[in-house]
Structures are given as C-alpha cells and as structure tokens.
Amino acid sequence: YDRENAAAMDALASISKPVLAAIHGFCVGGGCAIALTADLRYCAEDGVFAIPAARLGLGYGADGIERLVQEVGMPAAKEIFFTARRFSAEQALRMGLVNAVLAKAELDAHVRGVAETIAANAPLTLKSAKLAMREIVKDSSSRDAAALRASIEDCYESADYAEGVRAFLEKRSPRFTGR
User: Using CA atoms, how far apart are residues 20 and 139, in angstroms rounded to an integer?
Assistant: First the structure.
C-alpha cells in the first residue's frame, strides 16, 4: 500500500507541466497529500486541511513529509503533523499550504483563468522552470545538472524562443507551439 501510494504521489509530482489544484471543502489525509503534489493550490473559503496520521497511528512516508516541509516550512509542518488538527482555509493560506483563498463561487473560474494564463506561456520554458524548481530543492550533489542545461538549451534552440523575441519586438502576444 505504501509503495503504491508513494508511486502515485511521485507520478503526480513529476508531471512536467504546471499542475493546479482547486480545493473545495475538506482536504484531509490522502486528499492533502494529493494537493501537495500540485504546483499551485487555490481553495474555497470553506477549505479545511489536515493530516491526521498521528490520530490514526499511521506511519507517514518521508517523501510526503518532505513535500509538506518544502511547501510550508519545518515549523508549520511540525504543527500540522504533531497536532493532527484541522486548519481553516485562512490558516492554510498563512502557512503557505495554498496560494489563495477565494469565494466558493469564484474558485473554479479563478483557477481556470490561472491555467489559461499559464497555457499562453512558452511550454518549453515552463517545463524547464519546473525541472529547475524540482532540482534546486535536492542536495547539490544529487541534482541533474545535465538535464537542467539541456532544458535551457532546448528553450534557446526552439522556434518558441524566436517567436517570443519576434512578438516582443512587434509588440504583440506570442503564439507558442512548444517546438
């Protein structure tokens, strides 16, 4: 069970494109673990967050704890794990667990708008930036420097780079293709 769970979370976290989460209501336990694999998390004002492992006697994988620590920092991660209590949307925002809290009726449209804004950007640049963000949290000796260099070179050698420069000079929005 733990191996399958860890593999699923790793698969979500390793998606090369930005992943957004729109959180309505309860985001507890496994739901919170799934949300932590997203790059950007937005929640409705009725959001409730918790990781109740300590109340259930569960062992919790280091990868999941590491993800939480990377997102909220050690002090907040300790409070979330050690107390196993529920946190409101506003508390989650203050901890850095979510990027913004919105009215329930506005959440989905807001997340869709953020997704459209991201989708208008250069896909290779987004992929490279996500790779860099994933690598910089690793110990410097285990970073994949070659993959980072290659992803940057891919950007500069792409038609999208030429299109971006051309669009900037022509004062128009670029039309990226991901090539």
Answer: 26
